[in-house]
Amino acid sequence: MKKILVIILGVFLISCNNKVEQKHNILFISIDDLRPTMNSYNYEEETMITPYMDKLASEGVQFNNAFTNIAVCGASRASIMTGVRPSEKRFNDFSTRASVDAPHAIPLNQIFKENGYETISYGKIYHHNDDFAQHWTEKDGGADQADFQDPESIRLRDNAETGEYGKKNPIVEYPDVDDYAYNDGKITLKAIKKFNEFSSNGKPFFMAIGYVSPHLPFIQPKKYWDMYDHDKIKLADNLYQPLNSPDIAIEAQHNSAELRKNYLGIPAEGLLDDELSKDLIHGYYASVSYMDAMIGKLIEGLEEAGLRENTTIILWSDHGYFLGEHGFWCKHSTFYEAVQIPLIISSPKYSAKDNSDSFTELVDIYPTLCELAGIKPPNYIQGQSLTPVLKNPKTILKDEIYTRYKQGEAVIDKNYSYTEFVIGEKYLGNMLYDMKNDKKQNIDISKLPENKELVKKYSIKLEEMRNYVNDDPFQNQSN
After folding, report:
1. Which of 24, 73, 128, 319 is catalytic?
2. Is 263 among the domain residues?
3. How many domains does the chain contain in total?
4. Residue-number span of the structural domain to which 227 is assigned
5. How high is the pLDDT of residue 13?
6. What tens digit of pLDDT does each residue of 403-417 get?
């Protein structure tokens, strides 16, 4: 009898040790071009249909003041994956390659792979599918942003004039197809199948799922388009250049070029008419709801595979998106619509389920995931781990963030958004907005005499950050 008890005790201790040693999984959900439109963010312009992201927010911590470090996909993704801030000479364009601008970086997929994880990439994670590709144990062929299913859309594209990157595309389609006809649906099914494999083999994983929706073109099954009443779509009420703002904020930094140069039926300049604007906004909302449904299927698959209790889910977007504000469409700016993003972290390691007002930047993701997985990050990392906020959402780690695009550099806090336009040593202008009384950024108050000291204060902050990011973060690198 004593011998049997010893054996049972031994088996129990081995089982406990295995549980202690089990690596923590990461489900890394990337969404392209998503502004905080979900109901959980109390989006003002439309009652959005996003039940699955809303549910995820209720199961973890939603960061209400989360921002991209640069509002363009290639550069933003390179920054997130390496933990390095963009600068004037690094990570500053859609065509950015992390492996070229930061060849000495240890990207997230590499550090997790080197620590015993299966690293999986389905969809759009890096902008370039081959960027640091050697550090994925499995990856698919990337993401097709014009994955048309309607024969008429394909005909229009094939007979279209050439745009900046090839044939111009229709801006929307909503054929009567099932959820899995599009690439975002296909990668969802692929991920669910992979969850079942991990459930059987017990391997730890860092799985990155990159949804293209709601990036242009706005394409999704008809049932998602039908969720919204076209006649009730609201247009932006500030189609004008902010009062007193420098022309560089409009002309040089942003002209909606992504939309104008690559899509059919878009005027080369000037405001879009109301019906075209409604089509775009309607398409964007429908794409958000489609992507939300795929996230619901993805998380359901994780739960059914029995992996949810040992997996942190992080949902983020690479930047925000304009829907006509200031006459802008797409991103590429330091205005609020371009730089504010949704960020949700739901981790079984922490029981907190609340919103956080701590200011947060995408560069903070790298050290956060490392800490959750018990991995020591490289010493060059320029973000700050968010785990104190996951423990207590009332914790304020930062009260300001820094972001940039091209000539523009901005510091944003709860009171103000301040941008300077600088190329090298050449100063080109600035703008200041009162974020408590003018969150839509309609009146630039930087030239008011009473704000002289305020402008000086924020200018010093930007100069300090400019000097910091322009230094080589890898010069003293050690692991």
Report:
1. 73
2. yes
3. 1
4. 24-398
5. 43
6. 999 999 999 999 999
Residue 213 lies in a domain: yes
What pLDDT score was predicted for residue 250?
83
* Catalytic residue flag (residue 127): yes
Domain membership flag for residue 446: no
Q: Residue 430 falls within a domain, yes or no?
A: no
Q: Which among 24, 127, 215, 319 is annotated as catalytic?
A: 127
Q: Has residue 10 got a pLDDT over 70?
A: no
Q: pLDDT tens digits for 190-214?
A: 999 999 999 999 999 999 999 999 9
Q: What is the pLDDT of residue 458?
A: 98
Distance CA 436, CA 418 (A): 13
CATH number reported for the structural domain that contains residue 339 in this entry: 3.40.720.10
How confident is the model at residue 254, as a pLDDT? Answer: 62
Q: What is the pLDDT of residue 145?
A: 81
Judge whether residue 8 has pLDDT over 50: no
Total-model pTM: 0.94
pLDDT of res. 354: 94
